[in-house]
Design goal:
Length: about 850
C-alpha cells in the first residue's frame, strides 16, 4: 500500500511538472499567460480529482491485496545460483539437478490451461484476481497477464489470455509495460495469441516508447536502425537510442565514485559448444576465432578449476596467484558472483608480503612490488567505493598513495579522482590532471576518459581534438563513458563532423552495455541454467527485440529444430517433448535473419539451411545460395563454402559442375583446417565421381587440373594422383611446423607407408559409401519436395498467366529431370524489391512470410 501511494505521489508530481512546463512554454511563446494558466490549472484539477479518487480506492484493490497474500504463501524463490560441486558426489548432484528440469518438461505441455489442476492458494488467488480484474483493477490485470505470460507461481501459461489482459490494461490507462508487451506479442505472434503483425507491433512499441518505457525505446530504436517493419531511418533510431543512452549514463554515474559496476551477462548459448555448427565448423570458433587458452575463457577449464588451481598456488605462497584470485572475485563474471570479502582477503595477502610494518620489505622477490601495487590499487578502490568495506576516503587515499608511489595506474587514477572531487582532500584539479595523465600514459581507460572529459570542458578546438583522442583510446577498452562521449560528439558535431550513423552505433553500444538497467539477461541466463528453457526463451525474446544480437542468436538457437545432425542425440531427443511454445521454426528463421543482419556469419549460413531444406519457410534454393555466397565472402565461413561445393557437386540450386565444386571444397579447406576430414572425404568422393564422369563422357564439367585420363585409367594411378595432391596440401600447411621438430624434415612420406595408406583408404571408402548412401536418400527426398513445391508454384502461376502456363507445362512434362538447371520463373532474389507484396513482411524481419 505504501508503494502504491508513493507511486501515485510520483505520478501526481509528474503531471504537475509536465503542466508547469507546458505553461512556461506557452508563456514564452504566446506572451499571453492567462489562457495557459487557466487551461493548465483546470486540467491539473481534473487529474488530481481523478487520481484522488484512485488513491481513495481503485475498485478491487482489496481483492488484489488478499490475492497477493495468498500468492506469498506459495512463493519460494525458485532461482538461485548453484555453485558447482566437485568430486563424485558433486557430479552426481549435478546430474540429479539436470534430471529435474527434464522431468518437469516431460509433463504434458499445457496446451490449454488446466484450471482444474490449480489448487489451494493459487486457485484462490486467481479467483480473487479475476474478480478484481472484472472491476478494471490495473494491478490485478497486470499480475494476471504476467502469470499467463511468464507462468509465475507455476501458473499454466496461456498466451491468448495474457494478450487479452495486457490489451485490456493498455487500453484502460495506457500502462507502458502493457503497451510494450502487446507490441512484443504482435511482433512475435508467440503462442499463436495473435497474428504476427509488424506494423501494429511498431505502433504499440512506439506508444510505450513515447511514454518513456526504456525497453520500448530500445526496441523502436533498433527497428528504425535496421529497418524492421519500417524503412531504415537513422534520425529516428538515434533519437530513441539517445534517450536510452542518457538514462544509461545517468544510472552509471549514480553509482559510487568510478561508476556502477556489474557483470556482463550477455552471451551466446551456442558459443558454449563452439558455435551453432559446433566446434571448428562455425565461424564463431574457427580460424582466427578459434578459442585460445587464456584464464578468462572456459574453453579448456571451468572457472571452478581455475580457482581451485590458483588457490593451491596461493597457499604455496604464489603472490601472483593470490592477486589473480582477488581480481576474479572482485570482478566476478557470468556464473561467478562477486565476492568482496574474499577479494579483500586475497589482496591483503599480497600487500602483506610487500609492506611490513608500513615499510616495503628489503629485497622483495621479482615482480612482488608490481603485484603489490596493483593489489593496493584494488584495495584503495574498494575503500573509495565502499565495496565489502565501509566507505572511507582516508584509507582509500592511503592505499592509492602506496600504489601510486610504485607508478601503478589504477592507484594514480583513484588518487586523481579523490583530488578532482575533493573526496577527503582539498580539491586540486591540476594535481588530478597530472595523475590522470600518468595513468592514461599506461593505457588505463578510466583515466583516459577523465582526461578526455577535462579537455572537453575547455572547449577550444585543440582541446576537443585531444578529448576525442583520449575517448577513442579508452573506447578500445570498451569503456562505456568513452562510448557515450564519442556518441555525443558525433551526434552534436562537436570536435568532428556530425555523423548520425556513427552516433547511433555508439549510443546503441552504450544502451546495450547497461544490462541490469535495460534488460533481463541475468534472469534469462538463470532460467536457462535451471533448465527452464521456456522461461529463458521468453526472457531472451525481450532482449532480442531490443536489438541484442546475442539474444537474437539465442532465441533462434533455442527454437532451431535442426540443432544437431548427429544421429545419437536424435534418439534421446523426443520431438513430442519439445514444448509447443518452442516449436516455431518460422520465428527461428526470423531471428536467424536478424542476427545475420547484425553481422553474424553463422546465422547467415543457418538462414541458408532453412531455405535449402524448407524449415519454417518454403524451399527456396536461390535464397539459400545467396545466403551461402554472402557467408563465404572473404573466406569467412568454411561451412558455407562447403555447402556451395556440395550444391555444385549435386546440382542442387547451382549448375552441376565438379570443377567448381572442387574449388569450393578447396577454399573451405583453406579457410579452416579443422574441417580437414570431412572435406577431404568429400573431395575423394568428388574426384571419383568426376573421373567416372570423364570416363563415360558425361555432360558435367569435370575437374580440370586432373590429367586427362588415358584409356587404361587404373585404380593405382588414380590413388597416386590423389595422394600427390594431398601430400602437397600437407607440405604447405605443415612445412614450418615440422621443419625444425622432425629430423629429416620430410614429415609425411606417403611412399613409405603404402600399406597404411591402403588401410586408410579402405576405411575412407566405407565411410564414403555410407555418406553417399545417406545423401542419396536425402537428395531423393529433396527432389520430391522441390517437385511438389514447383508444382504448387506453377499452379499459382497458371491462374495468373495463361501463356506461361502452357510453356511451363510443356517443359515440365518433357523435361522434368532438368528442373534444377532451369531458371525459376518465380525467382525474386533474396530480397524482395520495394513494391513487391512481400516487401513489407520482409523488412519486418522474416523473408517470405
Ligand atoms: C472497464 O473498462 C471498460 C473499458 O474501459 C468499460 O467498458 C467497462 O465498463 C469497465 N468496467 C467496470 C466494471 O468499470
Ligand atoms: C503498469 O501497471 C502495473 C499494475 O498497476 C504497475 O505495477 C506498473 O508499474 C505499471 N507500469 C508502468 C510503467 O507504469
Ligand atoms: C513473473 O515472472 C517474470 C519472469 O521471471 C518476472 O519478470 C515478473 O516480474 C514476474 N511477475 C510477477 C507479478 O511476479
Amino acid at each position: 500500500m505504501k508503494r502504491h501511494l508513493l507511486w501515485l505521489f510520483l505520478l501526481l508530481q509528474a503531471i504537475a511538472f509536465s503542466y508547469a512546463e507546458a505553461q512556461t512554454k506557452q508563456h514564452v511563446l504566446a506572451g499571453d499567460t492567462t489562457e495557459g494558466r487557466t487551461g493548465a490549472s483546470f486540467r491539473t484539477e481534473v487529474a488530481a480529482a481523478q487520481s484522488g479518487g484512485q488513491a481513495a480506492q481503485e475498485p478491487g484493490a482489496d481483492l488484489v491485496e488478499s490475492a497477493l497474500a495468498e500468492l506469498r504463501k506459495l512463493y519460494r524463490p525458485f532461482h538461485h545460483r548453484i555453485r558447482k560441486q566437485h568430486g563424485v558426489f558433486g557430479t552426481l548432484l549435478q546430474f540429479a539437478l539436470k534430471a529435474l528440469p527434464s522431468l518437469r518438461l516431460s509433463a504434458p505441455p499445457p496446451e490449454t490451461p488446466h484450471r482444474s489442476a490449480l489448487s489451494g492458494p493459487l486457485l484462490h488467488a486467481t479467483r480473487l484476481l479475476e474478480e478484481s480484474a472484472r472491476q478494471n483493477n490495473s494491478d490485478a490485470l497486470y499480475i494476471l497477464a504476467e502469470m499467463n505470460f511468464y507462468g509465475n507461481f507455476s501458473y499454466p501459461r496461456n498466451m491468448r489470455a495474457a494478450f487479452d489482459y495486457y490489451h485490456q490494461l493498455a487500453s484502460l490507462n495506457g500502462n507502458n509495460s502493457a503497451l510494450y508487451m502487446v507490441g512484443l506479442m504482435y511482433s512475435t505472434g508467440i503462442g499463436d495469441a495473435v497474428q504476427r503483425d509488424q506494423a501494429r507491433a511498431l505502433l504499440y512499441y512506439t506508444f510505450a516508447a513515447n511514454r518513456g518505457h526504456t525497453r520500448a525505446e530500445m526496441t523502436v530504436a533498433h527497428r528504425h536502425h535496421v529497418g524492421i517493419g519500417t524503412p531504415k531511418n537513422c534520425d529516428a533510431a538515434v533519437k530513441y537510442y539517445k534517450r536510452v543512452a542518457d538514462k544509461a549514463i545517468a544510472w552509471y554515474r549514480s553509482g559510487p565514485p568510478g561508476g556502477m559496476a556489474w557483470t556482463t551477462e550477455a552471451y551466446r548459448i551456442a558459443d558454449e559448444t563452439g558455435g551453432v555448427y559446433g566446434e571448428g565448423a562455425s565461424v564463431a570458433s574457427a580460424g582466427s576465432n578459434a578459442i585460445k587458452a587464456h584464464p578468462n575463457s572456459d574453453a579448456y577449464a571451468s572457472i571452478e578449476d581455475i580457482i581451485e588451481y590458483l588457490d593451491l598456488m596461493s597457499q604455496k605462497g604464489d603472490f601472483e596467484a593470490s592477486f589473480n584470485l582477488g581480481r576474479i572475485y572482485y570482478e566476478g563474471q557470468r556464473g561467478l558472483e562477486k565476492n568482496m570479502q574474499l577479494a579483500r582477503k586475497y589482496f591483503f595477502e599480497v600487500t602483506q608480503k610487500y609492506w611490513r610494518k608500513s615499510r616495503p620489505v628489503d629485497s622483495p622477490k621479482p615482480n612482488l612490488d608490481k603485484t603489490a601495487a596493483k593489489a593496493a590499487g584494488y584495495i584503495g578502490r574498494m575503500y573509495m567505493r565502499g565495496e565489502g568495506v565501509e566507505q572511507n576516503f582516508d584509507r582509500a587515499k592511503f592505499w592509492f598513495e602506496r600504489g601510486a608511489a610504485l607508478k601503478e595506474a589504477r592507484s594514480q587514477w583513484g588518487l586523481g579522482l579523490l583530488y578532482l572531487n575533493g573526496y577527503g582532500v582539498k580539491t586540486d584539479v591540476i594535481q588530478a590532471t597530472e595523475l590522470f595523465k600518468m595513468a592514461a600514459a599506461q593505457d588505463y581507460a578510466p583515466a583516459q576518459v577523465q582526461l578526455g572529459s577535462l579537455y572537453l570542458d575547455q572547449g577550444q578546438s585543440d582541446d576537443l581534438a585531444a578529448a576525442n583522442h583520449y575517448f577513442e583510446l579508452a573506447a578500445r577498452w570498451a569503456n562505456i563513458e568513452a562510448y557515450y562521449y564519442l556518441a555525443e560528439m558525433n551526434f552534436f558535431g562537436v570536435g568532428r563532423e556530425r555523423s548520425c550513423s556513427a552516433a547511433v552505433v555508439y549510443y546503441k553500444t552504450v544502451a546495450e552495455k547497461v544490462e541490469p538497467l535495460v534488460s533481463s539477461w541475468a534472469e534469462a541466463n538463470l532460467a536457462y541454467e535451471d533448465g527452464d528453457t521456456e522461461l529463458a526463451f521468453l526472457e531472451y525474446l525481450g532482449a532480442a527485440e531490443q536489438g541484442y544480437e546475442k539474444a537474437q542468436n539465442n532465441v533462434a538457437y533455442i527454437l532451431d529444430p535442426d540443432k544437431s545432425r548427429l544421429p545419437i542425440p536424435k534418439l534421446l531427443d523426443h520431438r513430442s517433448r519439445v514444448p509447443s511454445l518452442l516449436q516455431n521454426p518460422t520465428l527461428a528463421l526470423i531471428y536467424w535473419t536478424r542476427s545475420s543482419r547484425q553481422g553474424n556469419i553463422d546465422a547467415l549460413v543457418k538462414m541458408g539451411d532453412y531455405y535449402l531444406y524448407g524449415i519454417g519457410t518454403d524451399v527456396d534454393v536461390d535464397k539459400a545460395v545467396q545466403c551461402y555466397t554472402g557467408a563465404s565472402e572473404y573466406h569467412q565461413s568454411a561451412q558455407a563454402l562447403y555447402n556451395l561445393g556440395w550444391m555444385h557437386e549435386h546440382g542442387v540450386g547451382l549448375n552441376q559442375d565438379y570443377h567448381l565444386a572442387k574449388r569450393y571444397y578447396d577454399s573451405a579447406l583453406e579457410t579452416n583446417d579443422e574441417a580437414y576430414l570431412p572435406v577431404a572425404l568429400s573431395l575423394l568422393k568428388l574426384r571419383a565421381k568426376s573421373a567416372w564422369n570423364t570416363l563415360t563422357h558425361g555432360r558435367i564439367n569435370s575437374i580440370k587440373d586432373e590429367p586427362k585420363p588415358k584409356k587404361d585409367w587404373s585404380l593405382s594411378e588414380w590413388i597416386n594422383n590423389f595422394l600427390q595432391d594431398d601430400a602437397q596440401y600437407y607440405d604447405d600447411v605443415y612445412d614450418d611446423l615440422y621443419d625444425d621438430t622432425m629430423p629429416g624434415g620430410d614429415a609425411l612420406d606417403f611412399d613409405d607407408g603404402i600399406m597404411e595408406s591402403f588401410v586408410i583408404l579402405g576405411l575412407a571408402a566405407t565411410l564414403i559409401f555410407l555418406v553417399m548412401y545417406r545423401q542419396q536418400r536425402q537428395q531423393m527426398a529433396r527432389r520430391r519436395d522441390e517437385e511438389t513445391a514447383r508444382q504448387r508454384r506453377q499452379q499459382q502461376q497458371q491462374q495468373r498467366l495463361q501463356q506461361q502456363q502452357q510453356h511451363g507445362g510443356v517443359q515440365a512434362g518433357a523435361n522434368g529431370e532438368d528442373e534444377q538447371q532451369q531458371p525459376q520463373p518465380q525467382d525474386r532474389g533474396l530480397f524482395p524489391q520495394p513494391g513487391d507484396p512481400d516487401f513489407g513482411q520482409w523488412v519486418a524481419g522474416g523473408i517470405g512470410h
